[in-house]
Amino acid sequence: MSAVLAVDLGGSGSRARLTGPGGARETAGDRLRVDARGLVAAPLVAALVADLALRPGDVAAVAVGSSGLLTLADGPQVVLDAVRAALGDVPTVVASDAVTSAVGALGGRAGAVVLTGTGSTALGTDLAGCWRKVDGWGHVLGDAGSGSWIGMRALEAALEQHDGRRSDAGGLLAAAVARLGEPESWPRQIYTREDRAGVLASVVPDVVALAGQDEDVAVAILRRAGHELARSLTAALRPPVPPLASWTGGIFGSRVVLETMREALAEARPDVVLEPPRGTSLDGAELLARRWLAGDLTPAEPLLTVH
């Protein structure tokens, strides 16, 4: 079995797995940043390759799934350049993290997957001519139901409580102050940061904890997130995508989000079979690399590029 490197670059962190005759080794790294030029991928890829002690010629193929590939970069070139700088001119597959997540969660079958972490995207595919992406527009214009979306609404509610515009979000205000400091410092912490989406998403554990204590505002935010994710998944499931779906991402660690999404999807599309994920985005990236080596992978630019 040839050695392949699977890489996942996301707003919550980065991961890589080397799989070869000797087994598998994994490492993790920092989250993907964005600056004025777009995605900052090279330092992440270099660090992951260094952690795995890889050199040019050590792997037969690389597959990278990256968030923001379609909206925050001019195509896959920034990721291709990062791989080339770290490993030389190795055969490389670059895909949106929506693609790697869908391939991993469905185990390579056709269907649709909703992916949510710091951001959110849904992807539906028939594994032929249709690769339908829904949302993934970033924390300012979209990413409905994501960690940054939840965090933004939680902080909005906390600031309304701080201002006296509401009186039912005291728990959110206290939790946000404990995490971020006094409210007057929040705009500076968020607006000036290149990783502001990740900062917003850092509040999610507090929202989930408060929901577990039946804090009404926190529960309502998480239920809204579940409904938004069901809307994205429903849109991705339009024909010719078959009625098979799954999910992936840390936000689904919240029972409220997952159950709300399940209920809303069942109401909108009772014919859809919703299954737990079979694998992760890293599994999906590895599967894409293997398919490339086997000659069984058709490019679907801009979502899926082979070099």
Brief summary of the model shown:
With 307 residues, the protein is an alpha/beta fold. Helix content is 43%, strand content 21%.
Overview of the molecule:
It comes from Georgenia wutianyii. Residues 44-273 form the ATPase BadF/BadG/BcrA/BcrD type domain. InterPro entries: ATPase_BadF, ATPase_NBD, Euk-type_GlcNAc_Kinase. It holds the Pfam family BcrAD_BadFG. This is ATPase BadF/BadG/BcrA/BcrD type domain-containing protein. The chain is α/β, with parallel strands linked by helices and 307 residues long. It has 2 domains: 4-105 and 279-306, Nucleotidyltransferase, domain 5 (2-Layer Sandwich), CATH 3.30.420.40; 112-274, ATPase, nucleotide binding domain (Nucleotidyltransferase, domain 5, 2-Layer Sandwich), CATH 3.30.420.40. 43% of the residues lie in helices and 21% in strands. The protein contains 12 helices and 13 strands. It has helices at 42-51, 77-87, 97-105, 138-141, 147-163, 170-180, 186-191, 196-201, 204-212, 216-236, 255-268, 281-293; strands spanning 4-10, 13-20, 23-29, 33-35, 38-40, 61-66, 92-96, 111-116, 120-125, 131-135, 244-248, 273-274, 304-306. The strands form 3 sheets. A 6-stranded mixed β-sheet has the order 3-2-1-6-7-13, with helices on both faces. A 5-stranded mixed β-sheet has the order 10-9-8-11-12, with helices on both faces. Helix 3 packs across helix 12 (281-293) and helix 5 (147-163) packs across helix 6 (170-180). The chain is globular, with a radius of gyration of 20 Å. The protein starts with a strand and ends with a strand. The model has no long low-confidence stretch (mean pLDDT 90).
